[in-house]
Amino acid sequence: MKDTPIPHIPVAIVGGGQAGLSVACQLKTKGIESVVFERHEKFHSWRVNRWDSFCLVTPNWQCRLPGFHYDKEFGGKDPDGFMLRAEITDYLDAFVATFEPNIYEHVNVTRIAHHPQGGYVVETSVGTWTCDQVVIATGGYDKPIEPAYAEALDPTIVQMHSVDYRNPSQLPDGDVLIVGTGQSGVQIMEDFIRAGRGVHLAVGPAPRSPRKYRGRDAIDWLHDAGHYKITIDTHPDPVKALTQTNHYMSGRDGGKEIDLRKWHVDHGVELYGSLANMAGHKLEFLPDLTRNLDDADRSYVGIRDQIDGYIARNGIDAPEEPPFVKVWEPSCERTELDLKETGITSVLWAIGFRPDYDWIEVDVFDARGKPKFNRGVTDVPGFHFIGLGWLNTWGSGRFLGIEEDSAHLAEQIDLQLQSAGTRAVA
């Protein structure tokens, strides 16, 4: 009895989010066959890994999937608004319906390695394929981050990571400590305040941004000024760009900026520095609250200054804004906290994620385990990445840049297939 031959595909795409499916769309336009492998269902992170009140932080007009822009092909009526979770998935599903990709859902890719005869072997939970080209589109949100000392916390204190959070009712009555002040942490903070819950916030080094400034959304000003066209190769501080946490602000209720000082004054949010340790029901914080608040404000004022400069250089008539004033400053740095004495019954981790590339047996990583590439194209022929922050510009890894990034990658794949003589037409 003859062995069943292993199926071959020109391009294997791992990850069925907007990045991987954008590449599939661009390849199909070029007549190149691809298969997308998704371990859950397409757009899983948008459907499942978001809380109930989640909405975009960037305005809807930045949703620019290949040939399917929010305010054009999708026909969106609120380009300056911020889509809710269900609206985002409606947009994504409508995009996929325009080209019907070849996607295997609920299939886990367990190994990718070089094939002895050239190309790659892709092992999955439902079988093995070979391919000429590989695109890794799994993003950087595989492993939720929780520090090792979290295991030393009193087990009566409920712990949850933001990936599992949906609404305040999941956590027991009492105050909550939210660890992390990126976009997730500050937006979840507002959820608990609206629910009438006491909130304590461990403030990290995340920067913040204005929302509306001088008559327009700050993102609109920055877009017009060419800020989002800066590439990582031309960025004045590429290390900072690659390592800095996203600026925090909100798209809720039409969009708002988040000043943690005001949330302390107006809503009683208790602020601490970076969390440093846990033991039983006692916590330790670094004495860096003042510095972290000041650094966030410095970023905020810097963006305002950048917009002011653009307005002045171009002679634009725009309303003036009063200068930024701190509404509150810490009188001391609180470095210790007793959860039971304070009435905190739960801890919510919002300190991010790590990627998982353990299943990739191809030499495309640096000594720290980070992928090495130029605009997603690695030095190993036929191996590529998409959907990562600053793949090329600020918009990489976001809706704004995925059309350009996926078009570039599809072009590189096409050239490599032609060069190798393996160009196949879908």
From TrEMBL:
InterPro entries: Auxin_biosynth/cation_transpt, CHP04046_FMN-dependent, FAD/NAD-bd_sf. Keywords: Oxidoreductase. Gene3D superfamilies: FAD/NAD(P)-binding domain. It comes from the Bacteria. Transmembrane segments: none annotated. This is MSMEG_0569 family flavin-dependent oxidoreductase.
